[in-house]
Amino acid sequence: MDSSAGRPQSHRPIRGQMPGGKSLAWVVGLFFSAVAAVVAVFLAVMLAASVVVVAVMGGVLLALASLAARARRTVKARNDGPQILEARQVGGHSWVAYGWDRRQ
Questions:
Q1: Which residues contact 87 (CB under 8 A, 6 or more apart)?
Q2: Which of 9, 57, 58, 64 has fewest C-beta within 10 Å?
Q3: Its pTM surpasses 0.70
C-alpha cells in the first residue's frame, strides 16, 4: 500500500505550471486591466467629443434655418411689372403673351 494515498500532493507542481506563476498572472492581469481602462477612457473621450461636434453642427443648422425664415418673412416681391399677363394660343403649341411692356 502506498503511504501517500490519503494525503493531498500539493508539494508537487502540476505539469506546465511554473513556480511563481500566480504572481506572474496577477502582474499580467493588472497590466491588461490598466490597458483596458486606458482604452475605455479614450473611447469615452472620443464619444463625448463626437456628441459635442454633433451638438455644435445642430446649433449651426438651427441658426441658419432661423436666419432663412427671418429673411423669407422680411423680403417682399417687387411690384414693378404688369398685374395681369394675358396669353393666347395661336395654334398648336404656340402661344403669344401680352402685357409685358404695358403699365397700368
A1: 95, 96, 97, 98
A2: 9
A3: no
| pLDDT, tens digit only, all 104 positions of the chain | 455 555 555 556 556 555 666 788 888 999 999 999 999 999 999 999 999 999 999 999 999 999 999 988 887 767 665 555 777 888 888 888 776 555 54
Say if CB 64 and CB 70 are below 8 A apart.
no
Cα–Cα distance between 96 and 89 in angstroms, integer?
A: 6
Sign of CA dihedral 68, 74, 78, 84: positive
- CA-only gyration radius of the chain, Å: 42
